[in-house]
Amino acid sequence: MTTDAPKTDAPKTSAPKTVAKETGASKIEFAVRAVLLGSVLLGLGSFRLSPLAAQISTRGGGFAALVNGKPITFFELEQSVDRRMLALRGRNPDSLLEGQRPRVRSDVLSELITERLLLGRCDGLKIEVRTDEVDQWVQMQIDDARSRGDDSIGDVSDFFDQWEADFGENEEQARHQIRNRLRIRQLLNSIYLPEYISPAELRAYYRNHPKEFSTPTVHEFRQIVLPMNDPDRLAVLAAIDADRVAGKPFVEIIREHSRGPRTNIKDAEGEWVTTDEELDSFYSPVPETVRATPVGMVTEPLYAGQMIHIIEVMRHTPGRQKGFDECQLDIRSKLRYMREDQQRQRFERELHRNAEIRQFLTDSPRG
Predict the structure, then answer these.
(1) In what order do the strands lie in the sheet with 218-227?
(2) Given Cys at both, which of 73, 117, 135, 183 links 122, Cβ 3.0 to 4.6 Å?
């Protein structure tokens, strides 16, 4: 029995969204995620205690919760919250993050409680993980990184050095965390019961989720981009118009006249390849104009945001719906995962119902 204690839209830019590596992201981030339940205890980035955690560490702290008589201290809770906040930093403004800290603290405490219950069940069932199994898991992460072309983690020693840099835990502590995660994974694997997935269910999922099984429409275009505050913009536009009348190739016009940010890509040819969804990250009227412009045509100047765009459309590649035969293995895997997740949630709810849990978070000092 347990005793208790807005989505914001990022502003559009006149350049399309790009997928980039997050700065400061852990080189072993994906390895850690592979064994985490949610993101309990671990986060990303180098670790530093919050003022609250530092204060608690010097005065001895107190209990954030008792799980079957075993404590979760405020100190270890704040360590975990700091890791979670670091994982979120860079994707959210700091001012917004600090406002979210009480909610993050509550979420992390719930995860820590669930983790303690799962490890308690592991103890009861005598589920253990040998040292060589931890070593095998670490080596698998190193091999996986190499297969993706990342040679920065050369051996096991490098792996644990990186772990300490990212999470502030030495090799002994890291091995303890990994062992616990692997124990939990073994426990959860043991509770999953195979459930029959009928062909009718596969087809129903395919019919009801068409976007999951279609390739996106792709637009390819070149563009000249000029800042609206460029004092020479009128003269540049006149020169561009004269070059076009003279039949000068558009690529050469781009190389000579494009002055906007991130335009000189692909050997200064100003080329963009975007999906239909990514195209919407441009300011209007760029998206609707690109979609409506025939291949090989050049638009008139488009005034969008703080930029002037002149665009030559090179190619429209329509998306296509994948056939059911192409997708059914993926659908079966997804439905199996969903069933297993439902079983896991039922199992965890049962653990909570049969446990004695006391939370003291409402009496905790606020960071």
Answers:
(1) 271-275, 218-227, 307-317, 302-304
(2) 183
pLDDT at 50: 47
* pLDDT exceeds cutoff 80 at 194: yes
- On whether the CB atoms of residues 296 and 315 are closer than 8 A, the answer is no
Between the alpha carbon of residue 84 and those of residues 113, 189, 210, the distances in Å are 16, 26, 34
Q: What are phi and psi of 298, to 5 degrees?
A: -115, 135
pLDDT at 8 over 60: no
Which residues, 6 or more positions from 134, have their beta carbon under 8 angstroms from its beta carbon? 175, 178, 179, 182
- Per DSSP, the three-state class of 260 is coil
At position 64, the amino acid (one-letter code) is: A
Q: Is the pTM of this model over 0.70?
A: no
How far apart, in whole angstroms, are the C-alpha atoms of residue 313 and residue 290? 7
* Phi and psi based region of residue 90 (left: phi greater than 0; alpha: psi -120 to 50; beta: remaining): left
CA 229/CA 237 separation, integer angstroms: 13
Q: Which residues are paired to 172 by β-bridges?
A: none
- The DSSP letter of residue 89 is B
Position 118, amino acid: L
User: Counting every residue, how long is the chain?
Assistant: 367
Spell out the residues 6+ positions from residue 98 whose beta carbon is closer than 8 angstroms to its own. none
What's the rounded mean pLDDT across residues 296-320? Answer: 93
Q: For residues 283 and 305, give the distance between their C-alpha atoms in angstroms, rounded to a whole number.
A: 6
